[in-house]
Design goal:
This protein has 145 residues and is of the alpha+beta class. Helices cover 37% and strands 28% of the residues. It has a six-stranded antiparallel beta sheet. A two-stranded antiparallel ribbon has the order 2-6. Strand 3 and strand 4 form a beta hairpin. The radius of gyration is 16 Å and the shape is globular. The two termini are 19 Å apart.
């Protein structure tokens, strides 16, 4: 299970130090990185990527305009990235540009995947979506601890 919020910096070569607490939850030396819906990046273990991408492809048709749009934005930009010896990931420039990553970043563990955000963009996202979050939380009222 990959959870937690971590603040790290992206160096001038596009590398980000990966938190050791998250590294212990990853069994391989590789993550698959792709564009997400919210102008951040999604990072998956190879096993989870295979699961997600297979489900998407099985339920999509290249003859559907809407399906092609999702496949082009989610499947096509995905890249496997290896950790270096120092535990850093080198984020490809095209993906850094998509997520508008600057020096300060936030890594979020969302159980089965991770998100990589520009810190300022993530802060703005939280502020902009506060009302929607409260409404969405209310819809979960049947869940108990």
């Amino acid at each position: 299970m990959l959870t937690g919020e971590y603040k790290n910096t992206l160096d001038e070569k596009g590398r980000i130090m990966f938190p050791s607490k998250l590294r212990t939850g990853i069994t391989s030396n590789v993550l698959v990185v792709t564009q997400s819906i919210d102008r951040c990046l999604w990072l998956f273990t190879p096993e989870e990527w295979e699961n997600v991408s297979s489900k998407l492809m099985e339920n999509s048709s290249p003859f559907s305009e809407r399906n092609r749009l999702v496949m082009r934005r989610f499947i096509a930009p995905a890249q496997e990235i290896e950790f270096d010896k120092s535990g850093r990931l080198s984020i490809p420039q095209s993906l850094r540009e998509y997520a508008c990553l600057s020096k300060d970043c936030v890594i979020l563990g969302v159980n089965k995947y991770l998100e990589l955000w520009d810190a300022a963009a993530y802060k703005a996202y939280l502020t902009e979506t506060e009302d929607k979050f409260l409404e969405a939380s209310e819809e979960l009222k049947n869940i108990s601890f």
